[in-house]
């Protein structure tokens, strides 16, 4: 049921205010300034003994894991490793007691993620799933977990499941933080910011017409760079993956400052760079990376916070999004990148919901 939308992907992009509300429903406690989860199957005492976390996943879910690394480090002060499930399953890393594994997966059926989970279980480590499909294999095999409640995701390119994964990781980081050092006041502040999020995503969707115009302008490019830093380095990877998957344009996501160590050689007047540059501690640094691209004649599309007039002087095109705290900015910034990929793909006549060579869930190795 497309509910009047031309494609599932667009419908699912537009469902994000609601899917985020559903992920948070009943999970925020003002009384304790924390998040609450029913299905972790580990006591608070067990969870306090966790001193290291491994996040494992594939594809877009792996990008959500990368955002989770920043969140868990900042809010819970936990050391985190993010592993491709396809790599983790065949490695034999020394994993100390007190390590918790999260398997992040929309479908709950991804073969590599399942195998990585089984391998960690076999070695005796507690495992939790962050999963969308209820009753899926990974949801059943993990010791416990959290459902996304995003509703069915039909488009092969993951959109709403990604933002639900990131918001769930934010709530989990809040929860782990509150079991440790995070203050009541800080917890209350984060809850307030989370509650405001669905409305901010609604406002972000107002950029649609502008994104469509920009998509038409750049739809003929053969290569794209996506650049962001810190919390928005994963946004750059995810934006590039969306474009690759559905428009078949070669795109690379990089931490913005890494560009000068190689990818800058790709820059010319035909290679657009998409800069993700919210307000925050690294804004000035990203701006100087942007200047380096402009100095080499590369077109620049910037995703920036509303009210940022500085960026408009340098970037060729700017997509404005609401200003949010840096921690939540990946959730807002990914929305225009999903729309950008969608419109570029449409412009090139691609099948956005069923891109070539891809399946919705990858149940083979
Ligand atoms: O169902 P999963 O989240 O485990 O799937 C993982 C990847 O196969 C998936 O995210 C893939 O990268 C998507 N096509 C991304 O849009």
Task: Describe the protein's architecture and organization.
The chain is α/β, with parallel strands linked by helices and 365 residues long. The chain has 14 helices and twelve strands. Helix 2 runs antiparallel to helix 9 (184-204) and helix 11 (233-247) packs parallel to helix 14 (329-347). The longest helix is centred in the middle third of the chain and has 21 residues, at 184-204. Bound molecules: 5-amino-5-deoxy-1-O-phosphono-D-mannitol (M6R). The site of 5-amino-5-deoxy-1-O-phosphono-D-mannitol has 16 residues, from helix 4. Homodimer.
Estimate the strand proportion: 15-25%
Task: Report the C-alpha radius of gyration, rounded.
Answer: 20 Å
Tell me, briefly, the overall form: globular
Quaternary structure of the protein: single chain
- Give the biggest beta sheet: 5 strands, parallel
Which helices and strands, and how do they pair?
Blueprint: H1 8-14, H2 16-24, E1 28-29, E2 34-35, H3 44-48, E3 52-57, H4 59-76, E4 80-84, H5 85-88, E5 99-105, H6 111-122, E6 127-131, H7 137-141, E7 144-147, H8 160-178, H9 184-204, H10 208-218, E8 223-228, H11 233-247, E9 250-255, E10 273-277, H12 283-295, E11 300-305, H13 310-314, E12 317-321, H14 329-347
Parallel strand pairs: 3-4, 3-5, 5-6, 6-7, 8-9, 8-10, 10-11, 11-12
Antiparallel strand pairs: 1-2
Helix pairs in contact: 2-8, 2-9, 4-8, 4-11, 8-9, 9-14, 10-14, 11-14
Task: Give a short overview.
With 365 residues, the protein is of the alpha/beta class. The chain has helices at 8-14, 16-24, 44-48, 59-76, 85-88, 111-122, 137-141, 160-178, 184-204, 208-218, 233-247, 283-295, 310-314, 329-347, and strands at 28-29, 34-35, 52-57, 80-84, 99-105, 127-131, 144-147, 223-228, 250-255, 273-277, 300-305, 317-321. Strand 5, helix 6 and strand 6 (127-131) form a beta-alpha-beta unit.
């Amino acid at each position: 049921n497309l509910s009047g939308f031309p494609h599932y992907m667009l419908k699912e992009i537009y469902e994000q205010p609601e899917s985020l509300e559903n992920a948070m429903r009943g999970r925020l406690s003002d009384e304790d300034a924390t998040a609450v989860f029913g299905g972790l199957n580990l006591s608070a005492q067990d969870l306090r003994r966790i001193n290291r976390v491994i996040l494992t996943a594939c594809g877009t879910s792996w990008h959500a894991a990368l955002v989770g690394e920043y969140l868990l480090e900042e809010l819970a002060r936990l050391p985190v490793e993010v592993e491709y499930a396809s790599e983790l399953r065949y490695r034999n890393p020394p994993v100390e007691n007190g390590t918790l594994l999260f398997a992040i997966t929309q479908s709950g059926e991804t073969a590599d993620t399942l195998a990585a989970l089984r391998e960690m279980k076999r070695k005796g480590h507690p495992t939790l799933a962050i999963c969308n499909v209820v009753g899926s294999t990974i949801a059943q095999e993990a010791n416990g977990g959290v459902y996304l409640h995003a509703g069915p995701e039909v488009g092969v390119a993951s959109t709403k499941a990604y933002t639900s994964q990131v918001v769930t990781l934010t709530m989990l980081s809040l929860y782990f933080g509150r079991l440790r050092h995070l203050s009541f006041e800080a917890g209350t502040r984060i809850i307030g910011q989370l509650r405001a999020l669905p409305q901010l995503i609604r406002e972000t969707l107002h950029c649609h017409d502008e994104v469509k115009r920009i998509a038409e302008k750049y739809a003929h490019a053969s290569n794209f760079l996506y650049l962001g830093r810190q919390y928005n380095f994963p946004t750059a990877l995810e934006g590039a993956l969306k474009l690759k998957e559905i428009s078949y344009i070669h795109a690379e996501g990089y931490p913005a400052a890494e560009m000068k160590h190689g990818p800058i050689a790709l820059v010319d007047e035909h290679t657009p760079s998409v800069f993700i540059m919210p307000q925050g501690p690294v804004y000035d640094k990203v701006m100087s990376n942007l200047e380096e691209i402009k100095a080499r004649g590369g077109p620049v599309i910037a995703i920036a916070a509303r009210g940022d007039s500085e960026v408009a002087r340098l970037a060729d095109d700017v997509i404005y999004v609401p200003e949010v705290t840096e921690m939540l900015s990946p959730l807002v910034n990914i929305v225009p990148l999903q729309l950008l990929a969608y419109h570029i793909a449409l412009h090139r006549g691609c099948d956005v919901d069923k891109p070539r060579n891809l399946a919705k869930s990858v149940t083979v190795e």
